[in-house]
Design a protein that fits this description.
Pfam families: DUF423. By secondary structure, this protein is an all-alpha fold. Helices cover 76% and strands 0% of the residues.
Length: 117
């Protein structure tokens, strides 16, 4: 997996979705559902930036896949919930959160590996 490419795509689409939410959805979603949408955007951006940073570290081979998968599951479930109002979609969101947490644990563990020069 190319973590830099994935990070750039996540961050770039996060900017686009954030603008979409702020401009196109503001009038059509309730305040609560707009906040749900914005939470998805925020975590998508965090993950995109994290992937860009991890891409610069050769020791980070495992974490990027988990962070990317988690961010997609987490954010897309929140986008779908906010746009559809189908509450059961909110049950998927914690799965994405757990996947991201696994990614962060792996990032921490892999950062302890000795550097090769």
């Amino acid at each position: 997996m190319n973590a830099a490419l994935a990070g750039a795509l996540l961050a770039g689409t996060g900017v686009a979705l954030g603008a979409f939410g702020a401009h196109a959805l503001k009038a059509s979603l309730s305040t609560a559902m707009l906040e749900v949408f914005e939470t998805g955007v925020r975590y998508q951006m965090y993950s995109g930036l994290a992937l860009l940073a991890l891409a610069a570290l050769p020791s980070q081979r495992r974490a990027p896949v988990w962070l990317l998968t988690g961010a997609v599951v987490f954010s897309v479930s929140l986008y779908a919930l906010s746009l559809s109002g189908i509450k059961v979609l909110g049950a998927v969101t914690p799965i994405g959160g757990v996947l991201m947490l696994v990614g962060w644990v792996l990032a921490a563990l892999d950062s302890r590996k000795p550097r090769t020069t």
